[in-house]
Every structure is written in structure tokens, then in C-alpha cells.
Amino acid sequence: MNAVARSALMIAAFAALSAARADPSDAGAYAEAPRDPLLAQVIEANRAKDWPRSAELLRGALAKSPDNADYHNLYAFALRKGPSPDMKLVFRHYQEALRIDPKHRGAHEYLGEAYLMVGDLAGAKSHLEALDGLCFFPCAEYSDLKRAIAEYERRARR
Questions:
Q1: What is the pTM for the complete model shown?
Q2: Which of 62, 64, 79, 150 has its CA 20 to 30 A from that of 14?
């Protein structure tokens, strides 16, 4: 392989790596964001940590679009981050997101984090494994869940 081809390959690899590390709360991480003003409102509410507002927006969106994996994922996220999360409801919506889109990296990451919240390390690791298979390069979702698992294990040793 000549130097020009190697350089082009390296540039493509770095571009793919940068795209894979996109913040899942960022509009660019969702394919529908440019066409879906609701996602922009949800992202704004999430950045402000206004979890009840985010959940309210998504509850309404799910009533109209029950087969939208992003809506289920973000709804479960807002519920999980909000006060007194109903973990049964959280798990139901993450699982629905994955039923609709089994390769939804955000849902795998967040479901793994939810498992850690209820003390299910094996459940969290199963989603880390799934992300390992979904991410060609290390992706933000894999890295974030791996870090959360390591922190969970560190606290458990204390």
C-alpha cells in the first residue's frame, strides 16, 4: 500500500472513530434529529437535567410513534435519571427500544447502566458484550458502559 492510500485509510479511520464517539445526548447522534423537532426539545431538556419535562415530551411522542426506538430509549433514560425512577418501567422501555432495533447502541449502554443501578453486574456485562460486537472501533457507548462497570466493581470491593 502506498503512502497516499495509507494516509487516506488513516483519515477515514479517524473520521469513523470520531463519529462513533458522538455524545448520545447530542442531536447529531440521532439520524432523525434534523427532521424531528421533538428530539431537539428532548436534548435541550436533558442538557438542563429537566428529566420530568423530557419524560413528558417523550410520553406524548410515544403515544403517536410507539415504534420509535430512540423515543423508547430516551424515555427510559429520562425516567432513570429523574426522581424516584420506576425501574420496571425503565427496563420495559429499554427492552422495547432493543426489540425495535437490536443494534441500538444507546439502549444497550443505558440498559447496562440500569442493570448496575439494581445491582445486576452480569446484566450490565451482557450489554457491554453486545456493544463490543456492535462497535467496529471503540465507541462512546462501549467506553461509557465499560467505565461505569469498572466504577461499580471498584465500589463493590470497598
A1: 0.79
A2: 150
Contact present, 93 and 73 (Cβ < 8 Å): yes
Q: Give me 110's grid cell.
A: 443505558
Domain count, the chain: 1
CA dist., res. 19 & res. 46, Å (int): 21
Q: Please count the other Cβ atoms lying within 10 Å of the Cβ belonging to residue 70.
A: 26
Cell output for 150: 469498572
Domain range for 123:
3-157
CATH of the domain at 48: 1.25.40.10
How far is the C-alpha of 136 from the C-alpha of 108, rounded, in Å? Answer: 15
Q: pLDDT tens digits, the chain, 158 residues: what are they?
A: 444 333 333 333 333 333 333 344 544 445 445 578 899 999 999 999 999 999 999 999 999 999 999 999 999 999 999 999 999 999 999 999 999 999 999 999 999 999 999 999 999 999 999 999 999 888 999 999 999 999 999 999 98
Cα dihedral 126, 110, 16, 68 sign: positive
Tracing cell 471503540 back to the chain, one arrives at 138
User: What amino acid is encoded at 91 in this protein?
Assistant: F
